Amino acid sequence: MTTTETIRDIDHLILGAGPAGLQLAYFMDREQRDYLVLEANDRAGAFYERFPRHGKLISINKVYNGYTERRAQLRYDWNSLLCDDDGFNFQNYTDAYYPNAQLYAQYLRDYAARFDLKIQYNTWISDVSRAEDGSGRFIVRDADGNLYRSRTFTVATGVSKPYVPEIPGIELTENYFDMSIDPKDYADQRLLIIGKGNSAFETANHLLNATRVTHLASPGSIKMAWQSHFFGHLRAVNNEFLDTYILKGQNSVLDANIDKIEKVDGEYRVNITFTHAEGQRAEMAYDRVICCTGFRWDPKFFGENCRPDMACEDRLPAMTSGWESTNIPNLYYAGTIMQIRDLKKTMSNVLHGFRFNIKSLYNIIAQRHESTPYPSHRLPLAAEPIADKIIDRVSSDAGLMHQPGFLGDCMVVDRETGEARYHEGLAVDYILDSEFGQQQDYYIITMEYGDFEGNVFSLEREPHPEKAYNDAYLHPRIRHMRGNALIAEHHISESLENDWRLNEHCGKRKLIRAIDFVGQEDPTQYQQTHFDKLVCFFERQLAVDTASATPMCHEMSSPTACSTACEVAQKA
Question: What CA–CA distance (Å, rounded) separates 268 from 261?
């Protein structure tokens, strides 16, 4: 760097004007922070003009959901970014359940314009380093030689490079990134697709009418998203191909290692070893091989003094529970790369999950760098208003629902003031790692699944409201904590509509008229039953002296361990 170079000082730099960068920029802009988004393309959302390759999103757009509250509508609108304008949302663009990706690109461009976000387009980043003056600030250089200096740097570029496994001959194959999507190019051909994720099945379904035979191959077996709750696993919208395999339509799904790929006499010779056949081997011949093995994050623009640690076979950056680099302070991550914190567990890899992560990330950045306390609501230290608040949150908030067990609310008890501070939408591991987890009396409120082993469509349901800890499906869970020690917990029975509010329901007319719980006299009062038991829990817990309470085991496996936690309170 020469002394003649000028540097533009900005408090917060954001790299990338996709949905993640736009979402963080929105919160920065709303609070009038000094920020700038740098985008390589000449418009926002350019990724969706090309991906998914076959043009259809797999995130749902359920326009008719019965709710008029925007926060509840977001439970079924998986594409809209968060904003304070209830009238500006993606559902106004289309009523298609699985929308068109090009239309979504238009929505992102309109979002950037609607909120007049500070975005500098046509800006390619060539280098990111740390200032040598000891300030810890970032020095960012673009391809035109312009320099930017910032206190924080947030990468929201997504996973922009294909992940290519180390297989001899893999360089001979085509890739999902640049393959032809014209079915005519595959007419009467033998096709091997390497991978069994959504991009692989999306490709197989798109070419179903054209190929003579299509095989999908990878070492592991298919995992369905409705079983694992991870949206990187196969979505039902993409599983049409499975019918053609199981019902013998000439196509196959192979659990096999690809040992070697060679090009011989105009065809691909592929040596494989089956993973569930005692090591049986085979040589297959194909006309085309397409690699659909996923994506990876590209850290190439980071300099040597600023190179972040990597994780997941160098496919994703390593980060703390606050989405900060594990080795580069004040380097943050937003968007699908946030998934390393809940990898293959919840929804941080997709928009309807990470938009809520980003809201929390903004609050963390504001707290650390702008001296702004993490937002909270004050509640009287009494069981009924606390129960009211929790019931409202678990019945309407999309973040708790879409990030089960990963995002939670944190309620800190202040016995001196007789109040509770209710903080919404934090990562549970961040709660435990941060100052919240050092509190001697606080609660974590989440929505979580229970045991999902076996046939997900044939699970025994729990009809006893005091045994909701046995529920397999999504339901609220409240933990009373002292530091990192669990004092007590309470589960609320699952609901067909994920709504536990008293005398309220979605839609113009009520769907559920009565539910007969064990021990309940009037089945029309099922919501009152949930509320009363939650009030009972808090009446007991608010009377507990946490300093002398006996912590519970973190692994709840028996009815005596976690019925309603009243027994634990009594012991204290």
Answer: 7
Share above pLDDT 70 across residues of the chain, in percent, rounded to a whole number? 96
Q: How far is CA 173 from CA 187, 188, 191, 291, 297, in A?
A: 18, 19, 11, 7, 21
Model confidence at 317, pLDDT cuts 50, 70, 90, reads very high
165-207 pLDDT, tens digit each: 999 999 999 999 999 999 999 999 999 999 999 999 999 999 9
Say how many C-beta atoms besides its own lie within 10 A of residue 54's C-beta: 14
Amino acid, single-letter form, for residue 205: N
Nearest CA to 493 among 513, 511, 466?
Answer: 466
Asked if 426 contacts 410 with a C-beta cutoff of 8 angstroms, the reply is: yes
568 burial (CB, 10 Å; 0-12 / 13-18 / 19+) is buried
The residue among 460 and 129 whose pLDDT is bigger is: 129
Domain 162-294 in the same topology as domain 7-160+297-370: yes
Angstrom distances, CA of residue 75 to CA of 92, 96, 282, 362: 16, 16, 47, 21
Partners of 258 in the beta sheet? Answer: 272
Q: What distance in Å separates the CA atoms of residue 541 and residue 536, rounded to the nearest whole number?
A: 9
- Taking each helix axis from N to C end, the angle separating 101-114 and 19-30, rounded to the nearest 10 degrees, works out to 20
pTM: 0.93
Q: Distance between CA 397 and CA 230 in Å, rounded? A: 19
Q: Which of 367, 317, 365 is nearest to 35 (CA)?
A: 365
Give per-residue burial for 373-400: e unless 16+ CB within 10 Å, then b.
ebeeeebeebbeebbbbbbebbbbbbbb
Token pair recorded at residue 554: 């973190």
List beta partners, residue 283. Answer: 271
Residue ranges of domains in the chain: 7-160+297-370, 162-294, 376-543
Give residue 226's pLDDT. Answer: 87
CA distance 262 to 361: 47
Q: How far apart are the C-alpha atoms of 226 and 320, rounded to whole Å?
A: 28
The predicted model gives 233-245 an average pLDDT of: 93
Q: Is the pLDDT of residue 4 over 60?
A: no
CB 125 within 8 A of CB 141: yes
Q: Half-sphere exposure of 166 toward its Cβ, with a 13 Å CA cutoff?
A: 1
pLDDT at 5: 72
CA angle 503, 505, 510 (to 5 degrees): 100
Give 3-state DSSP helix, strand, coil % of the chain, rounded to 5. Answer: 30, 25, 45
Amino acid letter, residue 362:
Y
Q: Fold for 162-294, please state it.
A: FAD/NAD(P)-binding domain (3.50.50)
Topology (CATH) of 7-160+297-370: FAD/NAD(P)-binding domain (3.50.50)
Residue 394 token pair: 């678990």
Helix/strand/coil (H, E, C) string of 258-273? EEEEEEECCEEEEEEE
SS3 category, 15? strand
Q: How much is the average pLDDT of 407-418?
A: 96
Would the pLDDT of 306 be above 70? Answer: yes
